[in-house]
Amino acid sequence: MKEYMKTNKLLFLLAALAVLVSAAVVGQRWRAESKNKTYDVVLDYNELELLAEQSEQDIAWWLEQFRDMGITRVGLTEESLSTLMENSPLPVSAKLMDEVMQDADWMEQYPAAFVDAITRRGYDRFDVLVEAAGGEAVSFVTDAVSKRFHSEDLVMMNQGDTCYILINGTVTDTLYTETRKLYTSKSDGFVERREIDSSKLLYVSLGLMPEKVETIQALGMEIIPRTLCYNGRNDTQYAQAVVDGYQKYNIHPSYIIAGGEAVIGYDDAEDDFALDYIRDNGITIGLIETNVQRENILQTGVEEIAKATGYQTVRVFSVWNYIQYRYGYYGYTGAEEIENTFYRAIVERNIRILYFKPIKHTDDSFAYVTDMDVYRELFDSLDQRLAAHGITRGQASTLDDIQIPSLALLVMGVGAAVCGALLPASFLPMKKKWTLLLAGAGAALAAAAWVVLPNSFRLLASFASAVVFACLSAVFFLWSAKHTAQTLPAGAGLPQILPRSVGILAGSVLIALAGAMMTAAPLSSTAFMLEIGIFRGVKLAQLVPLAFFCVLFLSYYGIFEKERASDTLHFGDITTALQWTIPVWALLVLGVIAAAGYYYLARTGHESDVSVSTLEIVFRNDLENLLLARPRTKEFLVAFPGVMLAVYCAVRRMPFFTAVFGLAGTIGMTSVCNTFMHIRTPLYLGFVRTGYSLVLGIVLGIVYMVCFELLLRLWGRAREKFL
Known about the structure:
The protein is α/β, with parallel strands linked by helices. Helices cover about 55% and strands about 10% of the residues. It is elongated. The protein starts with a helix and ends with a helix.
């Protein structure tokens, strides 16, 4: 290793320079994250209203209880034709003409003058027919509809205290059922057909209900209006009507959490209506995290406004239905798992607004938990845990707008390329000039990509760093294991092996951490911290180092040679490997390794179909409660002890087990880099998590090594006695 480093001294110096630049970049990010320490809670009014119906108290009482807990913002969804029909006392009905026209006598059910008016104008099955009765309903509906829809799309007629409205709909407004196959005698069997189910026009926001506004404002709480906008029905006229509605009730929202498909007014995006309104009023826009806890829901205009406002933006965690049902979950007696979910969202994923919906009983599809003490305990406990991270509740904080200097990106990309050139030299008999030529070619390609592919370059640099440094770490610990075996006799005692194995593990993790900084730095801009941009090469970055380790091991040990002077790959190694007669026991071991590898990769991420056992989840939760950051299970239970055991087995001249444990150790090195690929997770958590994993891994490595030593001695005695 010394000769390898001496020969390639220049390349290692360039690599060190790239790591220093990455450290400066992540330092800037660290400072931004250290100021982003306040989260907020927004209550969902509609679900609180449903909760109140099931309790002995009204909605005002429930709002007051949360207000007294310091939760003062309420998300109030504007009414639509759908909610007016389902959840309001106003006598309003709305039907698609597709449904109306199925009644042969439908014209006789409406005033002749109205029928004549819509006949002259023309109608089709995509239109919506609205009927409102009573002064309050007529006033609310006619005012809202006339302000939000263009006059040429409306036919309105009042008769007495009843109003009739036809809203012109189009095929793009229409919502269909799933495709069904129908038999027909006029074709070759079946045809596909979709039936009209509903229309977006039924869900377009029409304004806030005055009674609900009064209830919230009477308690001194702030309304966060939720406006549902749909593309094609969301122009500047619509947006102006929405804002006029806010101003009518003196609502100046701290946040805009868009509903539906878009931000208000984005059919006329060039008018900048929404952007101007948000800027002029100092409003923070919310990015709603998807229900798989990865990326954000793609709503038209949200990301554009986020960028235009210098990322005065926060990530929003909506309490999805499956989260609401986690009361008494995993064997807990209360809302502990819901609290754990909130804690992870805030601490690990840069969530700064919880859009809170009340808890439901796990064994019931509708019954809410109506014990207010449950909610008090939930937020009291959550705030106590967050205090350890310096996070408090209040006005949601936003991240500074961080952009990575283009020149720094170039240096890091070239650094990754140079480090990549060091890998072949670690197992091939390459002369210095060829390594330098390879490094020069890699640097030139990196510079060309920096010029030609500026947007993709940061992703390529990050991916390359994750792969290359995990491989370099594997080079270090495998070479060190072999060198230790060359300096110690096969019968060396544990006191001789343990200190060296600990040092080798620590050195490997330090190399991986250098790679982690190189991985994180190119993506340490605000867009990636908010998951507007995202890294997608995690699984590939985990696989490549494992393949590299197999080649590296073949170079250092051949086909499990106990003594091998060479550290380079020869053609004969390849032919020998291809001709190797694999014993049955080795196939069984390899099968177990393959199954474990598949499980390791398949369960990565929240979109995985491979579930984590309840026991492991509870174990993880306990670690989160005990420690500042939960160490990664595979690191401290398997991978880091695996490096120590690989050193032990190398000394004991057990090359097969050196390979098995070395492969496990390589997983740990990729995991360290992988930890920092999750850019939404604050940097300090990654370092703390890795530190915990290292300490626990050393402890468990010592335990495993002692157990392995005892097993070897028992096996030796059994072999002497019986074999």
